[in-house]
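ingest -> validate -> predict -> emit
validate: passed (alphabet ok, no gaps, 46 aa)
predict: started
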Amino acid sequence: MNDRLKRSRIVNFRVSEEEFAQITEATQANGSRSVSMFARDAVLPP
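emit:
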């Protein structure tokens, strides 16, 4: 997906402290720039 697209919608969900730690670790291990980019890449098709 083109990173230059204007994004105007927010999607959020609650996670536990442990889940957030897992997500943060996965984000770093994947080389993603942010949790948002990691989640977007995980959910949306290329």
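DSSP finds two helices and no strands in the chain.
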